[in-house]
Design a protein that fits this description.
The protein contains 16 helices and 14 strands. It has 381 residues and is of the alpha/beta class. It folds into three domains: 71 residues, no CATH class; 191 residues, Rossmann fold (3-Layer(aba) Sandwich), CATH 3.40.50.450; 66 residues, Arc Repressor Mutant, subunit A (Orthogonal Bundle), CATH 1.10.10.10. Helix 12 links the parallel strand 7 and strand 8.
Length: 381
């Protein structure tokens, strides 16, 4: 009999985010079948609590068999702790998931720079644009973007990675076939086709609010770095940051405007010792020597301010030369006016998608070439 059935049984009796599997694997020298076949005496010797001991007396494999059959029928793959593809980064956690269910490409996570991109659901335009541009650059440079597919910053990070043609992992707080939130159906399907959807929750699991903070330990656990782009004082993304710190991983935070609700959490993280992030290279420079063949940070956009020179009278004067190397940005910049705002919808170009136009405008704004106005309109600066 395939050991998957025993691992699924263990995940069912232990529950999510439990330290019981680690305790049992250590006591039984990694023998999952021996764990299943053990009796009360052996479990007590492994310091299993009375509550969990009661659950482990149920040796029925019916539910585990149904889960395996369901996954086979739906082409959902099962990854267990003893599989060669199971990430070592997760094995280092005290509460690693015994089983993961996934759709898509199972990356060689341990050989990749993985960065968690998280933040508030109630994002501002600043949070949206910065999360998008930095995640885009990170993915374009070779990093894997990991997030939770929640509304707001999570979705922006996934979207940016996909637009960059990069890799992304969506760690779900639900079973693998549940779309949550409902408006993310399309991007969830796109990630399933092009990237990786993964969850510890079996296909018959009922979605509960507690699922989401528990899954955050997996988001941070897969990554060397967690980037918090925008967070209020009670944001769930701060839970991910806390997990990252406990797991010995680096936390980066985007500075925000003083007094803004969405900046409270990130500014507090910086005050408490997290590294401030203002560009993708703030993260990439920390890890590029570890991944010289994968990380190419020469692909990121140059966000440095326009050069300033002085005229013959000593007055500061903006350099009239626009040193844009991106052809699409040059074309869009040339279509804008200095006085009359032009909406993104008006900037229609043959063969260029709306998302590509928005990306180019975002890059131009962040680099100081254009100014945004209400109604998603822009003028030259």
């Amino acid at each position: 009999m395939n050991n998957n059935i025993y691992w699924i049984w263990l995940s069912l009796v232990a529950g999510a985010a439990s330290t019981l599997p680690r305790k049992l694997i250590t006591h039984f020298d990694g023998d999952i079948k021996a764990i299943y076949e053990a009796d009360d005496t052996a479990y007590k010797a492994a310091n299993v609590s009375p509550k969990k001991l009661f659950s482990m007396r149920d040796k029925s494999l019916d539910t585990a068999e149904s889960i395996i059959e369901w996954c086979h029928a739906k082409r959902v793959k099962i990854l267990t702790y003893d599989d060669s593809g199971y990430p070592q980064r997760l094995k280092s956690l005290t509460d690693w998931p015994p089983v993961l269910y996934y759709i898509g490409e199972l990356y060689d996570i341990d050989s990749s720079l993985c960065v968690a991109g998280v933040g508030t659901r109630s994002m501002t335009k600043y949070g949206h644009d910065t999360a998008y541009s930095l995640s885009y650059d990170l993915a374009r440079s070779g990093a894997v973007i990991v997030s939770g597919l929640a509304t707001g910053i999570d979705t922006v990070c996934h979207r940016a990675a996909l637009d960059a043609g990069g890799r992304t992992i969506a760690v779900l707080g639900t079973r693998i076939d549940k779309v949550y939130p409902a408006e993310n159906r399309d991007i969830m399907r796109e990630i399933a086709r092009k990237a990786l959807l993964i969850t510890e929750y079996h296909p018959f699991h009922d979605t509960k609010a507690i699922n989401f903070p528990k899954r955050n330990r997996i988001i941070s656990g897969l990554c060397q770095a967690t980037a918090v782009f925008e967070a209020n004082g009670k944001s769930g993304s701060l839970i991910t940051a806390e997990y990252a710190i406990k797991q010995g991983r680096r936390v980066f935070a985007l500075p925000g405007k003083i007094g803004e609700q969405g900046s409270i959490g990130t500014n507090d993280l910086i005050k408490d010792g997290s590294t401030m992030i203002t560009k993708a290279s703030d993260i990439l420079d920390e890890y590029k020597d570890m991944y010289p063949l994968d990380i190419k940070n020469d692909r990121i956009f140059d966000y440095s301010p326009k050069k300033i020179n002085r005229d013959s009278y000593g007055k500061k004067q903006a350099d009239k030369i626009i040193p844009l190397t991106d052809s699409l940005q040059k074309e869009i910049y040339g279509m804008l006016d200095t006085d009359i705002p032009v909406s993104a919808e008006q900037l229609s170009l043959p063969g260029v998608s709306y998302s590509e136009i928005i990306t180019a405008l975002t890059m131009l704004e962040l680099s100081g070439y254009v100014v945004s106005h209400p109604g998603n309109a822009y003028t030259k600066k």
